[in-house]
Amino acid sequence: MEEQAAEYRHINEELKRSADQFGDKNYIVSLHQEKRLGFDQLEARSRKVADFLQTKGLEKSDKVSLVAKNSIEAIIIFFGVLRYGAVINPINSDESQENINKIIGRVKPKIVLHDSEIGLDAALSGRTVLSFSDHESSKDPDAPFFPLVNQCEPCFEHPLGDKQDVAEILFTSGTTEEPKGVAISREALFYMGEEVVDKLSLGPDETLLEYRAYSWASTQFLSIISTMKSGTTLLLAKKFSRSRFAQWLQHYNVTISSGVPTVINMLINQPIGITIRDVPALKFITSSSAPLSVESHKKFESIYGITINQMAGMTEAGWMLGNPPEKRKPGSVGTPFKHKKIQVLNEFGKSCNVGEIGEIVVSGKSMGSGYINTNGGIDYFSAKGFYTGDLGYVDYEGYFYITGRRKDIIIRGGVNISPKQISNKILEIPEVLDAVTIGFPDDIYGEELASFVVLKQNHSTDEKHILNYCVQVLPEFKVPKVIKIIDKIPLNTRGKVNKKALLSMI
């Protein structure tokens, strides 16, 4: 019998509950700021932000865009807007000014808040634009937001927004097309956090290290919201640092670290000289945001003895799949999160058999509502489920495997080819660290294949050797026409392959 879901609570109540339960225990330890914030301080400081928003008369449908780097202040503002009941729109500070302007133009916020280190151009004139720095500062003419907040008299009592109302607008990474704004309801946000706590068994004895941008959906649900709910301490870094990673793990007794394949492959190529014996508190490192090859997974664990726990998600759906920490399957992205229904459907919309590849479709109460359209309304996702574009299959034990992206399928001479299959074969070559295969236009076949290869440090080979290997292990029609050895695979700000940059190299 299915376990009954927790009853929805407004995030205002969640913040008060966590403050009562966990008090002055560390909620955030900010590594680059060398500051901490207790659960009780988070409640008090986010309440002051809500006081400020009330003085501005914001309604529940009004938006606040937040352009920031990882910091205690960004998290205070994030929760302050949510608890007041307006709509928060987090934006990665690494985005180009052009993209920031596009996002703000689409969202049409009443207020734009930005880190004082980040300059915004005149295109935002006509909006309320305020910069911020230290949340405890009472006077800072160059960053007036928190001084204004600190001056507010207590007035916030009753939060706005019912469970069906929009809580947040997050933008996708836009690896293949224009980024899309995803509207997430208050109810969905609540259950997105709940299911992470459930899957990873988070609690007050855990310390979770996060170095990815606060504006990523995966960061918010894994690291920001779930830790607030569970009493887990969030160890927050501005960005990943290879030279400091071991020190962070050891000094703070980290039990769970977030991770992405880019970092994992970096640590394989340039080992940092620790093993699990040096970080005995560490239970596992997650891997998500992009595929991690089975070879890299096994290589990392053989070098460090540290467990990798693969998961999968997307902005539209939050976390979808994750390996249960106590029963992992390398190569698999795991089983569905608690409030998700995951199906694998064929081209006719019928369920695939076990082991049969189809498109992964997700539904459930912990889902985004739809995309923000040009008029500011929502184009809602189908109630039948969201087609993720991921191709994969499920095994007899209910574990899912992702084999590629539908849009990544290369059609050469009318034949569908999975680029991941070609890349995986190239990764079998001992000298190869990483490989990516894409399609490019061809006058005869429609599309041809190009593979980009990164070699391991202090290893050498050439394109001819790689081509000869492909001829031996692949059918003729799957052998790449172009093979290029490059220093590194170009990535966007989300750590995903930048295909436009690869196409420019052909």
Low-confidence stretches: none
**Outline type:** globular
The average pLDDT score comes to 91
The whole-angstrom Rg is 23 Å
Overall SS class:
alpha/beta
Report what the structure shows.
This protein is of the alpha/beta class and 506 residues long. It has two domains: 11-338 and 360-385, Rossmann fold; 409-503, GMP Synthetase, Chain A, domain 3. Helix content is 28%, strand content 27%. It has 13 helices and 26 strands. The chain has helices at 11-22, 39-55, 72-84, 97-107, 145-151, 186-200, 217-230, 242-251, 261-269, 294-304, 419-426, 463-473, 499-503; strands at 26-30, 35-38, 63-68, 87-92, 111-115, 128-132, 166-171, 181-185, 207-210, 233-236, 256-257, 284-287, 308-314, 318-322, 335-336, 340-345, 358-364, 370-372, 378-380, 386-394, 400-405, 410-412, 415-417, 432-442, 446-455, 482-485. The strands form six sheets. The protein has a nine-stranded mixed β-sheet with strand order 2-1-10-9-11-12-13-14-15, with helices on both faces. Strands 4-3-5-6 form a four-stranded parallel β-sheet, sandwiched between helices. Helix 1 crosses helix 3 and helix 9 (261-269) packs across helix 10. The protein is globular. The N and C termini lie far apart (55 Å).
